[in-house]
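Malic enzyme structure dump, as promised
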Amino acid sequence: MSVLLDTMGMFSRKSKAADDKPAEATLALKDSSRGAEESNVERLRNPHFNKGTSFTQKERAQYGVLGLVPSVEETMELQTKRELQHLRRKTSDIEKYEFLMGLLDRNVQLFYKLVTENISECMPLVYTPTVGQACQEFHLIYTQPRGLYVSLNDLGNVQALVDNWPEDNVTTIVMTDGGRILGLGDLGANGLGIPQGKLQLYSACAGIPHHQCLPVILDVGTNNESLLEDELYMGLRQKRERGETYDHLVKEFMQAAQKRWGRSLLIQFEDFDNTNAFRLLEETRHSYTTFNDDIQGTAAVSLAGVLASLRVTSKVDGGKKKLRDHTFVFLGAGEAGTGIANLIAHAIQEEAVDDGEEPISEAEARRKIWLVDSKGLVTKTRKDNGELQHHKIDFAHEITDDLIDAVKGTEFEVKDGRVTSLEQTVHMLKPSALIGVSAIPRTFTQSIVEYMAEINEVPLIFALSNPTSQAECTAEQAYNWSSGRAIFVSGSPFDPVDVELESGEVVTKYPGQGNNAYIFPGLGLGVLAAKATTIPNELLYVSAQALAEQVVDEDLDGGRMYPHLSHIREVSAKIGVRVADRAFKLAIASAKRPEDLDAYVRSCMAQPIYPQTRL
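structure tokens r here:
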């Protein structure tokens, strides 16, 4: 590995005992060999080395860049202020996204300083919702490679591609095949924007060093005809591969990555379609440290929102005080929906144990949860039961006589043992929580939300589909249709809403965004700190608990079920500590447990500052 790449650390952090720490790159700039490697102009064009106007006069002389930057010496804080003004001059979100990627290409440290200190403003730009548009237009706004491209054409040669990556200390990979990007469908090779955005949040929110992160696109073709017909599309021009060849490519990449970077390498699957998401996670989770954010991250952040909501509903007469008091109905039974459902069932079991009550079986916990898919309510009596995907089967319940009687003689009466719509389901089951992960907009209709408010003093309305355009309802609709009583959570951000309550008082509600960035950076931090070899539900559960515990009364009073994004680094630190602690207790950690786990995990979080230069 070149000295240049060995010294390109994005962040600075204190050294720790070699026994306890994850491996890290040397951050000092070794000028003795740079002269042979780079010209003075090349140094300024190297985004990992460039400080721009923050180079001191001595550094400018040492590196031969006197006169090549303005004569003023500026602090990083002043540089950040200028870049923030540049950002705010852009008139559209996609222009802001392109500006931020341009900043990343010329000054890595400054990019992360700007994003970290302005996370509430920048997160919607580097990730959802703007990254959705960026992926749709990826082939149009492409400027230079920022990741590893592995295609079907590389079968048999993937190790060579992995070995070409210039960083010897990769700890975190986010990979996608572009099969199901957010709620936008198959975007093929354009999907690389998603791993890039996720890893930027790993670094900004939890201090995972940028140079230790690798975004990967598995280019297996696409069924998106508009992309296949676009001469500027940069992926394979063929239909999506779904057979053994696909599996061979995934396996070859996983083996090559682990061979180079070791068993503790964290590999996150991102935006794979349902056909592959569950299967790949199950096939790899015991031999690799793998994580699927769509299944597990969405589950943990959603559970955290429900846990936080209990502090509101428990204060209401007849309100829900425990998870097991709720009845959950999901619209959408794909990877996100069943992932959330499984983790809620696990949490119901954990809750009973924590409360010192009789243990609740997994089957009993799952009976609190019902799924609605494109064909209606998932039940044991549905005629297509034999065709149910395996991940739905555990939630295929029996419709009992008392449920049938609840809607008998009404327009929602059950006929032929089938419940075909969400509204019919809501009237029959009378749930307290409605969770949308369908990627079908406006499916939480006025009549459904009004009925939820009729049967619940504080209904839970979680419209989690991304991006904003795919949400099952808007924040304004949820609040207005429930007279301001609903607890609303969305997957993408919504603006605050002024709502008139039944008393006539007008209050401002601040919708809670169930952003996975509350979970996966801190989870990854804890996993890497402990060098966990697998990520079971127990780690997801404690992540959700740690997140929910950081919601303060002020947040709840305003309608938020999550902490303010400005606290995301502290949120990630606390999640990381809780995850690492549980990993050690479960004996799935390969690292030595430090005496002060809190201090150790925090010391793993790199800070966005320029490294010190040795002159």
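The chain has four domains: 40-120, 127-292, 297-514, 518-604.
lmk if u need the other ones
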